[in-house]
Amino acid sequence: MQTAISDAKLRAWWFHRQGLDGSLAGQSASEVLARTGWARSVGGAAPYLALFARAGLGRADVDSALEKVEIHELPSARGCTYVIPAPDFPLALAAGQPFSEDELKVARRLGFTDKEIDKLRAAVVKGWRRVRSIPMRSGKRSAMPRVTLGRRELRKALRQRCPWRSGCCRRRVRSGGCR
Questions:
Q1: Distance CA 56, CA 59 (A)
Q2: CA 139 to chain centre
């Protein structure tokens, strides 16, 4: 025998399951995400808003949890980024593994060679080594180096390789638009 559930009762159940009823107040960001599910981030403010709505956590609380690596933004399911609690890091990374090569396929389709991609990887590793060599003060980097190209270096780099071979990247630097 099936019984009909009223819309109001169903909404109340959803509200409770998502922690929007105040039942998660005072819990940590990791506990909230473990109970309600990962927060899709896509580089926006949605995780902050989700944690505020569920547990009343402010930005400082969430940033503190990030610094302590209780939560972290990781590439995961469908190649999207999510904010994930620490116990789920291995699962999230495993779920994102099939999508990790997609960026290379796109780069190759745009005309970049494996040699150019390897050169970029080496430059990134070199940059991270430079950042990691900066002495830390109270758990934070004392001064993050800014890696910038001057106008001449940027033009040279863009002249060497425009993925569309039309020079539109040079126009993008000047005008802010491309293609």
A1: 10
A2: 21
pLDDT digits (tens, 9 = 90+) for 1-52: 678 889 999 999 999 999 999 999 999 999 999 999 999 998 789 999 999 9
Helices (H), the chain: 7-17, 29-36, 46-55, 59-67, 89-96, 102-109, 114-132, 151-160, 168-175
Six-digit token string for 157: 């780099």
- Residue 10 · residue 16 · CB < 8 Å: no
Do the domain assignments include residue 140? no
pLDDT digits (tens, 9 = 90+) for 99-146: 766 667 777 877 888 888 888 888 888 877 776 665 555 555 444 444
Q: Are residues 26 and 54 in the same domain?
A: yes
**C-alpha 100 chain-centroid distance:** 14
Q: What range does the domain containing 86 cover?
A: 8-98
Same domain, 51 and 128: no
Counting the structural domains of the chain, the total is 2
Contact 83, 71 (CB under 8 A): yes
Separation between Cα atoms, residue 112 and residue 169, nearest integer Å: 14
Residue 112 belongs to a domain:
yes
pLDDT at 85: 95
